[in-house]
Structures are given as structure tokens and as C-alpha cells.
Amino acid sequence: MKARSDGTTLISLYHFICAALSLLGICVACAIVALVIIAAASDPSASDAAAAVAVISIIALLIGGLLLVVAAANLVVGWGLWKGREWARVGALALAIFRLFNIPLGTIIGGLIIWYLLRPDVKAEFSS
To answer: pLDDT per residue over 92-108, tens digit each?
Structure first.
């Protein structure tokens, strides 16, 4: 097995951290729903409480679902990079392209990941 470069290790760890932060975001979305339900239950005279709970629950569910997909993608790509898989390099490039839209920090990080993973010596690191 070839030794993993420091840059690849760093990018892999970055994906693991992004996955953990996405899972934390899911917890926050669930906490917001719980707080809205508790607030709506504490004031039974509010006529719009059921509608507010439904709308906020649907929004939180959509955000949580998106964050779950992002977390899973980051975990899979991070693990693949850690193991030196070529498909993970391609997946990391795809995720880096999406990160370019997160101005300004995501643009910088995404650009650096794209630059690093497209270098010939790094491509050779992932070739069988």
C-alpha cells in the first residue's frame, strides 16, 4: 500500500470534520422543531400554533435531510480518500465544486482542494 500524502490526509480529515458539522446541524434542526412544539403546546389558545408547527417541522425536515445527504457524502469521500481510492478523489473534486459557491471561505477551500487533487503527483497517488 502506498503512503498517503499529507495533503490527502488533510483533505480527508476536512471531509470528516464537515460530516461532523453537518450532523451537528441536524441536531440543531431537531432542537428547533422540539422548541417550536414545546412553545406551541404551552399556549393552547393560539389558533395558528398547529400551522406554525407544521411549517417549521417541514422546513426543518428538508434542511435535516439535505444535511444528512451532505454528511453521508463527506463521510464516504473522506473514508475513500483515507484509503486512497480513485473514486474518492473524483467525489472530493465534485464536492469541492459545490463548495465554490460558499463565498468566501468555501471558495478558497474548494479551489485549493481542486488545485491539489488535479496535480499529476496526486493523481499518481490514487492510480492502482
So the answer is: 999 999 999 998 999 99
